[in-house]
Amino acid sequence: xxxxxxxxxxxxxxxxxxxxxxxxxxxxxxxxxxxxxxxxxxxxxxxxxxxxxxxxxxxxxxxxxxxxxxxxxxxxxxxxxxxxxxxxxxxxxxxxxxxxxxxxxxxxxxxxxxxxxxxxxxxxxxxxxxxxxxxxxxxxxxxxxxxxxxxxxxxxxxxxxxxxxxxxxxxxxxxxxxxxxxxxxxxxxxxxxxxxxxxxxxxxxxxxxxxxxxxxxxxxxx
Length: 222
Fold this sequence. Notes:
Layout lengths: L2 H18 L8 E7 L2 E6 L4 E5 L11 E5 L6 H22 L9 H14 L2 H4 L3 E9 L6 E6 L6 H12 L4 E7 L9 H16 L19
Antiparallel strand pairs: 1-2, 2-3, 3-4, 5-6, 5-7
Helix pairs in contact: 5-6
């Protein structure tokens, strides 16, 4: 394993532990580290996703997912195929863009407008990282549109997306900006990112919880 691969895999694992580890609150997924090359995601009470990480990941090879879910039967292998397709799609996007790929739709046009407006502020534009996550139901198609971008802070976009999901928020875009002050925070930075995002969603009235309930605020985004 090259030093670059080892560093990238370690950074990804650190982000996953921050999102799905013991301190992840009420997230329905739990991460267990069997070894540096075997990551296990416990999905509820009776399903486990094992991810085997090759030595030359991520530069040359993709991880190998194995889903143990007796209740799914033959559908388990189809889900694994979908996971691999998602991985390949994410890699292609990472290679060919510097940020989110925004397709034409009402919701995504709004996302693009919000980001452009925020980045017109010099202070925000100068941030070390502007992390983004959003979740909308597109008015023109009725399809849920969601994505995230970590702007170089590996794993932070997924942490924001997880926070939105855990709070039950919809029709919202969350942008958290971070200015590096010279002190490395380690995994604690993910807790701060989630805390800031969660507090903002609650303050603006977007938190429904996983089972629904509270109505969202009058504003279009946070």
